[in-house]
Amino acid sequence: MQNINLAHVEGPQQTLTMHPKKFVVWLFIVAIFMMFAGWTSAFLVARSEGDILNNELPQLFTITTVILLISSITMHLAKRAVRQDNLAAGRLLLGLTLVLGTAFLVGQWMSFGQLVAQDIYFVGGSAIQSFLYVLPFMHGLHIIAGLIFVGIVLFRIYRYQVHGRNMASIEMCATFWHFLDGLWLYLFLFLTLNA
Amino acid sequence: MATIQSHSSHDAHADLHEEHAHHESFITKYIFTTDHKMIAKQFLVTGLLWAFVGGLLSMFFRLQLGFPEMSQEWLRPLLGDWINSSGKIDPNFYLALVTMHGTIMVFFVLTAGLSGTFSNFLIPLQIGARDMASGFMNMLSYWFFFLSSVIMFCSLFVETGPAGVGWTVYPPLSALEESIPGAALGMTLWLTSMSLFIISQLLGGVNYIATVINMRTRGLSFAKLPLTIWAFFLTAVLGLLAFPVLFAAALLLIFDRSFGTSFYLSEIYLNGEALPHVGGSPLLYQHLFWFLGHPEVYIVLLPALGITSEIIATNSRKPIFGYRAMIGSLLGISVLSFVVWAHHMFVSGMSPFLGSVFMFLTLIIAVPSGVKVFNYLTTLWRGNIVFTPAMLFSIGLVSLFISGGITGIFLGNSAIDVYLHDTYFVVAHFHLVMGAASFFGMMAGVYHWFPKMFGRMMDNKLGYLHFWLTFVGVYMVFFPLHYIGIAGFPRHYYTWTNFEAFSGFTDLHAFVTVAALITFSSQLIFAFNFFYSMWFGRRATANPWRSNTLEWTTPVEPGHGNWPGEIPTVYRWPYDYSKPGAIEDYIPQNIPYSMTPGSNLPHENELVDREKDDDAIIIDESETDTTK
Fold first, then answer.
1. If we measure between CA atoms, which residue out of B569, B485, B577, B468 comes closest to residue B526?
2. Helix (H) or strand (E) holding B270
């Protein structure tokens, strides 16, 4: 059996595949991206109808963006540490990611307070003002999902279920987390340029 | 020609673990199952039940339209106080009936019931996989759909009635709970149900895409994929790109309804009082909605076209004409479906220049659609046609697709659409091209794959009766509606007898209603045939239609894991019907070229040498030729 299997290079080819579950993560990323594409294009439509925002974006958004960028770096380092079977460092770095992600969420929440201080409310204002809440809020929901994912992987590292030869779940987690980071970067730049 | 028998060597235990007997309880086998075949049947039965509910609702409003003077007092036992004191259907309930008919048919029957059933059932079977990429997600997909179904069904019974603002739920009507009774609790339930439905579709679609791309058996390249799988694959891609946008739109609508934001609501007065909303745009909703809504048309239609391609090739005993052109046209339709949405909004006050751009893009869809139609006809041309009920429904689909597609060319012209918009012409157009055509595809699929689903055959004679009554009935219902529409008769009107201009259509409307009643009743024949054959039908053989695709190489009733032995390897495309020189008029995909020396073309003979290196051939040589 084995020796024959070696020979099928010339016969019907094994189909080109990747890890189905990793692929599923990418597909969910596409779906999430489409959702935010819907909202940001709705934002543009609202703006094109003469709806403008006179205020500055909350200062905190800059800080939270930096926090999230750093968390992406720690996530990347965590993945590398786990790949090298340096589980202690992996745990530490992934835990750091968890903390930074939570800090990001808290920062986002506080930035809502800054919006309120600027007299921008979710309800009662224009569509654009509401979008300043909707976009970070919906992104925040996905961050919560991402944090749960990070938590699960961290737990699995403690149980020695994730290590150098079993990287699938931490790789999927990293992909998702980097995507959420990129998504926020997109939203942040979008709001900076268009608000 | 029989299929390759399972390996004589039993060292492939890694591949055979699914063969071990599963000790399944009723709950894990029939309810919380992760087996794609059972999930497909769950989708099918739920979809069929919804089809009857949706159809019944349409009967109620057809009665109102066809016989406006008739007392509907006799419906009181069923509809209760929705029959008002003068023995008429309540006007608000009429709007709810129309809304729910549309919602149920488009989403619950033709999206979940059609692609939910056949994508789940056929993708693993036709690509040679044991199951979906994630059986658990697949199960979740069904149960989200179930939950969404339960909520939508419950909304039929709330006091203010189900959603009554049209299946497109345009704001401001849908965004203001006080606007009409149909925008109250029923609308809230509608939005809840649809959100769950979108989650279900995404879970399902993600699974279909991941499975098709990653889990094809050895040798099954994209260029050898059956057209059904191509269609299901592209349908899932469309759903993945379109449904999140609908979700985005629905969420903003929920914010407007329940939190008081102004995404879709501009300055507005209700009952003489100014509402606090400022600056929103109801048109924004229409853009977001139709960005889903138009691809949704193809989400509904593409699986039906895929099923038809397969059935027409099999039953014409001919290769599908223009296999690559068929794939190309599927791709073309999929891409175009995202850039034509504004043709639903020609009368929304858009710039005429923008209108002409969308008109141009819309009319281009006629090209890939035409390619498909001509390829169906040329496949049938001089074929050795076997008229099974599935084949009849497939040919019926082609007929409906042509007649409904041609009226699409009228409606796609922005200038003509200004006149025809919101008339019965539109109703007739989309019911033929998308509603009835997809329904015919679904029926064709049920008749064709019933033996693989339940191991028994459906009754052919009842199938013929069902087909002819439905086919003639559908044309009798929707053809007259074109004329009524050209005369300017508007959709969604509860009563029209007060208008002098329209009173001449009483007889035509009555005719349509009678035809609709007959068509709907004849579906009971199908229901009987379906459920009766499930238990008492003639036992099926493994390959009753003498078809080429991999699902027919499984046992009559495939168990968990689909193939008891090793998964078959694919050597050829799925349309080797009536190949000159072949012993039989079909050669299944898993038969290597070395077994069919008589029919091989020169370039295929070259492949024979390569197959020699392959393990499956070595097994075949050790066994006697199974060709009979």
1. B468
2. strand B269-270
- Do the beta carbons of residue B579 and residue B597 sit within 8 Å? no
Residue in A12, A126, A130 nearest the CB of B569: A12
In this structure, which amino acid lies at residue B290?
W
> Do A35 and B211 lie within an 8 Å CB cutoff?
no
State pLDDT tens for residues A65-115.
999 999 999 999 999 999 999 999 999 999 999 999 999 999 999 999 999
Could you give the CA distance from residue B204 to residue B116 in angstroms, rounded to a whole number? Answer: 7
Is residue A187 assigned to a domain? Answer: yes
B17-31, B288-302, B437-451, B504-518: range with lowest mean pLDDT: B17-31
Q: Do B221 and A24 touch (CB under 8 A)?
A: no
What is the tally of structural domains in chain A? 1
Among residues A162, A183, A145, the alpha carbon closest in space to that of A81 is found at A162
Which DSSP state fits B269?
A: E
Beta-bridge mates of residue B273? B270
Q: Which residue has tokens 């329904």?
A: B439
Taking contacts as CB-CB distances below 8 angstroms, the residues of chain A near B211 are 20
DSSP label at residue B563 = -
Q: Mind spelling out the 3-state secondary structure of B153-208?
A: HHHCCCCCCECCCCCCCCCCCCCCCCCCHHHCHHHHHHHHHHHHHHHHHHHHHHHH
Q: Characterize B410-437 residue by residue with b for buried, 16 or more Cβ atoms within 10 angstroms of its Cβ, and e for exposed.
A: ebbbbeebeebbbbbbbbbbbbbbbbbb
- How many CB atoms are closer than 10 A to CB B335? 12
Q: What is the enclosing helix (H) or strand (E) of B273? A: strand B273-274
Spatial distance between the Cα atoms of B573 and B591, rounded to a whole number of angstroms: 10
Q: B525: closest CA among B459, B480, B580?
A: B459
**B366 CB neighbour count, 10 Å cutoff:** 15
Would you call the peptide bond into B172 cis, given omega within 30 degrees of 0 as the criterion? yes
Shortest CA distance from A14: residue in chain B: B218
CA distance B382 to B255: 59
Is there a contact between B614 and A46 if contact means CB atoms under 8 Å apart?
Answer: no
For residue A42, list chain B residues with Cβ-Cβ distance below 8 A. 248-249, 252, 263, 284, 288
d(C-alpha B376, C-alpha B393), whole Å = 13
How many angstroms separate the most distant Cα atoms in chain A?
Answer: 74
Q: Which chain A residue shows the shortest CA-CA distance from B8?
A: A1
CATH class of B32-266+277-536: mainly alpha
C-alpha distance from A7 to closest chain B C-alpha (Å): 6
- For chain B, the structural domain boundaries read 32-266+277-536
Q: How do residues B431-472 score in pLDDT, each as one tens digit?
A: 999 999 999 999 999 999 999 999 999 999 999 999 999 999
Neighbours of B17 (CB within 10 A): 9
For residue B12, give the chain A residue with the closest CA: A1
Q: Residue B274 belongs to what H/E stretch?
A: strand B273-274
Interface predicted TM-score of the whole assembly (ipTM), two decimals: 0.90
pTM of the model: 0.91
B278 contact residues in A (CB cutoff 8 A): 125-126
Could you tell me the sign of the dihedral formed by the alpha carbons of B583, B588, B593, B595, in that order? Answer: negative
What are the chain A neighbours of B263 within 8 Å (beta carbons)? 42, 46, 127, 130
Return the sign of the alpha-carbon dihedral for residues B487, B492, B494, B499.
negative
CB contact under 8 A, A38 and B248: yes
Verify whether the Cβ–Cβ distance A134 to B255 is below 8 Å.
yes
Interface test with B, best of A9, A35, A141 (most B CBs within 10 A): A35
Measured in angstroms, the CA of B462 and the nearest CA of chain A are apart by 42
Please, which residues bridge with residue B270 across strands? B273
Parent domain of A50: 21-194
A21 with B618: Cβ contact below 8 A? no
CATH code for the domain in which residue A132 is found: 1.20.120.80
Answer yes or no: are the C-beta atoms of B227 and B310 closer than 8 Å.
Answer: yes
